Every structure is written in C-alpha cells, then in structure tokens.
Amino acid sequence: MADDGFSVQADRRRALIDILGLDLAALDRHTRAAIEALCDEVIALREELAEARGALSEAELLADNDALCPMFNRRAFEREVRREIALATRFRTPLCLIFVDLDHFKPVNDIYGHATGDAVLLKVSEILLSLTRDTDIVGRLGGDEFGLVLSQASLDDSERKAAQLSNRIDALTVRGTEDAPTQGLRIGASCGVVAWQPGEDAQHLIARADQAMFAHKSNRKAGRPARS
Q1: 210 has catalytic annotation
Q2: Please, what's the largest Cα pairwise distance for the chain?
Q3: What is the band of 179 on the pLDDT scale with cuts at 50, 70, 90?
Q4: Count of other CB atoms within 10 angstroms of residue 217
Q5: Distance set, CA 153 to CA 11, 95, 148, 201 (Å)
Q6: Residue among 3, 144, 157, 170 flagged as catalytic
C-alpha cells in the first residue's frame, strides 16, 4: 500500500512538472530536489483545499437543513422566500405562501413523550413533501410550524393545496403501545394561505400567512367552515 501511495504521488508530481514545462534532466541535483519538494507542497495544498471545500459544502448543507425534518430550517426558508419574491417581481408571476401549524401537538409530547412527538413531525414533513412540487419551498419554521412557498401558483390553487394537506394531516392518529394502550389522539393542521402582493417583503408575507393561520385555527375550533 505504501508503494502504491508513493507511485501515485510520483505520478502527480510528474504531471505537475509537465504542466510547468520543466526538464528535470537538464537541472542539477539540488535544483531538481527543490522543484520536486515544491511540487509535493503544491499537491498537498491542493488536497487540503479539496477537503476544505468538501467540509464547507457539508457545513452549508447542515446550516440550511432543519435538525429533525428533511427540509429547510427557518433561516434558509426565509432566504428562499426572499429569492422567490425577487423572481416573482422580475417576471410578474404569482406567488403564495402557506403557514401550517399543527393542532393538538403539545399533548403528544405530554402523553407519549418527545420521541413520539418527533415521529409525528417527521410524518407531517413526509406528507408536506409528498404533496408539493420539486419547485416548491418547504421548511420547518420552529416547533410544530411549517411553511410552504408555491411559486407561480394562484390563491385558489394554493387554498386547494392547503385543504389537501390539512385533510391528510387531520387523518393522523397517535395511539399508545400494547403495554400502555390509550384511546388515541388525533393530529390536525391549521393552514393560513396568502398571496404575495407586489412590493411586499418576505417578513411581512410570512406574518400575514401566520395571521391567516390563526384565523383558520379559530374557525376550526368554532366548527365554522375553514374558508368561505
């Protein structure tokens, strides 16, 4: 194995010398040794740079992803919202945002524990990702709150999508184990849907979707139709 490593290093060194256009045979022994040492140093620096770039890419990925769910975290989600707004402004295309908040999630942690709560969040994220397009932006905004950005989507289409998501999440039920059976706890989702307005920034758009979500949650608690 050591010989293979030496051979690879020698091949890299020769390739670099060829790129430089040097004829080592025409040089004295000391100069040749100095050039070979310099080439080895350049090769080592290249390898370190490649490793650093790989580590940076991994760090950027971790910085963008939620710690639990396979989607953007809030910081990355807000950045993507700003990017989508810039595109909608430039091309004058519609853009909608859905703010999703789970109902009855706190009792899941209280009754079944945080491991079950995490499993519920993962199941919800699976539903959100399965019912959205690859071009849509999906993120966990914190706790049991999620956000979706639907580019080039009308408000009517986005409201239908929100109803579809809500119906799927409403069908989720958490039950106890055989050792500790319980009646079961239904999970639900309240969704606020808003259309981006020209000149509106990301922070205001998310805030309006949050307010729309609370209105939807209030209607659900009161037994009123989700949307007129």
Answers
A1: no
A2: 92
A3: low
A4: 18
A5: 56, 6, 12, 18
A6: 144
CATH superfamily of 74-222: Reverse transcriptase/Diguanylate cyclase domain (3.30.70.270)
**Residue-range domain boundaries for the chain:** 2-64, 74-222
Do residues 101 and 187 touch, judged by C-beta distance below 8 A? no
Instruction: Specify burial of residue 121 (Cβ count, 10 A radius: 0-12, 13-18, 19+).
Output: buried
Amino acid in position 46: R
Tokens 């939620």 locate to: 66
- The answer to whether 136 and 69 are in contact (CB under 8 A) is no
pLDDT in tens, 123-166: 999 999 999 999 999 999 999 999 999 999 999 999 999 999 99
Write the CB contacts of 120 (distance below 8 Å, at least 6 apart in sequence). Answer: 102, 105, 108, 172, 174, 187
Long-range CB contacts for residues 41-49, cutoff 8 Å, separation at least 24: 42/16, 43/9, 43/12, 43/13, 43/16
